[in-house]
Amino acid sequence: MKTLEKQGYRLTGKHSAVKICNWTRESIRNKGVCYKQEFYGIKSHECCQMTPCLTCNNSCTFCWRSTKNLTGTKLEPPIDTPEQIINNCIQQQKQLLIGFKGYKNTNQKKLQESFKPSLFAISLTGEPTIYPYLKELIQELKKRKIKSFLVTNGQFPDKLKDLNPTQLYLSLDAPNKEIYKELDKPLFKDYWERLLKSLKILSKTKTRTCIRITAIKDINMCNLEQYANLIKIANPKFVEIKGYMWIGESRKILKKENMPFHEDVLNFSEKLAKILNWKVIKQKKESRAVLLMKEDKDRLVY
Q1: What is the distance between the alpha carbons of residues 281 and 295, in angstroms, rounded to a whole number?
Q2: Tally of domains within the chain
Q3: What is the rounded average pLDDT of the residues 122-139?
Q4: Is the pLDDT of residue 6 over 70?
Q5: Which domain holds residue 116?
Q6: CATH of the domain at 211
Q7: Are 172 and 227 in contact (CB under 8 A)?
Q8: Gyration radius from the chain CA atoms
Q9: What gap in Å lies between CA 20 and CA 9, rounded to an integer?
Q10: What's the rounded Cα separation, in Å, for the pair 75 and 203?
Q11: pLDDT tens for residues 74-87?
């Protein structure tokens, strides 16, 4: 836990945490916005990057977070309520940002708005679906008129059936079973079957869906036909491809050369789009991120 705190995390309960995204800081100082604002219409300075569960069932080699002693498949009691987690996250978000009041380049209007986040990015670290009251947490956010972007590794497919966040991301880190095992190091033996089941559930959900690929040079930027077949199973609204960044804990496992340039990510994305018969509709070079859709006219933003 001390390592997480050194990395800028603020624990918000027994098993949850919040961390200020760099783009939140940049937006407050009018220095730029997150690619998610340009892709999906969210406001970077009103985003709360958090997790209801620090525990994760995978030990992904490309993860920049410190996951030591935080690997598992369930939370042990006592477990915080959704209300406790939300209230604590908002309070800690304000505490982490309050210092910006004293900076001359701070947009004071944006700063005040950041104290009342309009979006919870449930993606900070860990696997959110391990938290047993995730459905209720998302429902509570809706009551407060707070949007939710949920990122999951898809290893708990049955948990996805009843969830209805504003946007549901499923991380597709590999095109096949062998690469997934090597890259994500899952605890479950039936990890591939779990992922396939989650992809099928995604195709039936009524919420806005997105397949997210973290592109790692010389490791998973391959087998495009296999990626396309998996994406077709999920039939998502979006495919978001984001270049791996050589930061944090991942530097102990991967090489700097595994970090693709934006041109590499774009080239990979264009080839995948061609196979899917989709389109590249957005890209942000600074973030090495590319967004694919079937039709640009169908794009919905919030």
Answers
A1: 8
A2: 1
A3: 97
A4: no
A5: 2-298
A6: 3.20.20.70
A7: yes
A8: 18
A9: 8
A10: 28
A11: 999 999 999 999 99
